[in-house]
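Run: sequence + S-adenosylmethionine -> complex structure.
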Amino acid sequence: MASLPPLRDVIARHGLAASKALGQNFLLDEQLLDRVAAVPGDLDGEDVLEIGPGPGGLTRALLRAGGNVTAIERDRRCLPALAELSEAFPGQLKVIEGDALAMPLASVMPGPCHIASNLPYNVGTALFVGWLGGQAWPPQWKSLTLMFQREVADRIVATPDGDAYGRLAILSQWRCDARLAMKVHRSAFTPPPKVMSAIVHLTPATMPEGVSAARLESLTAAAFGQRRKMLRQSLKSLPGALAALEAEGIEASRRAETLSVDDFVRIARTMDAG
Ligand code: SAM
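>> structure
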């Protein structure tokens, strides 16, 4: 392990100039990377999926933590650097070349796994919403440890009434524990992005009974589709929604951003029962 070359050298030797189109902002500080890899807890012997390993900074840290890592990388230029890492950690790293968006989790990981990634900004939210969705619960993943732009991280952990509270908060929190684990300054990246970043950590919680994920998704889409409008207006075209509000004793004159996650769960449950 001590023999691993500095990441800067790996990048120089393999000509890995960062590509903006691929959302490449690399983390090179190994101490910081070890702290990120510690967020999910003990990874020794655990299966871990990493999206976008790039030159392999976070990958190294996950391997050092004892994880059995599967990494999906779209940029072919990174593959030789990752092959070297594979040699340094025999039997611990499998690299898949391709677009993570096109690979359902079950198609790349045989069983329960942790997901850890410094996500490419352009596809990060789409991947995240995909992992959160579906009716089956608990999901295949045991934890998500994900780097997002700070603004997106804030939306994931937001509480009612703040500007950041909306769909992403409801979808993240209705059956997960979600927390902001670490703030990361833009200067930690090469090249530095324009905005600050943060790591969020999610673990599956108990799914409320009698609520379908699809129902909750359509309800929150309608409720927050017209922000700052009263629910009476934003939910009027959703069959059964206004009756469910009344049944739950929630005033139709309220705005979506004032309702708790539990309020949305209760409305969805009443709609599903109706
Ligand atoms: N993990 C590295 C680090 O922390 O330094 C690189 C992170 S960089 C923000 C995002 C990485 O995701 C890049 O290596 C990029 O090539 C890769 N990537 C971008 N789009 C992808 C996709 N659709 N599927 C898989 N990897 C992708």
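>> summary
Residues 22-27, 51-54, 57-58, 72-75, 78, 99-101, 118, 120, 123 surround S-adenosylmethionine (CB under 6 Å). The mean pLDDT is 96.
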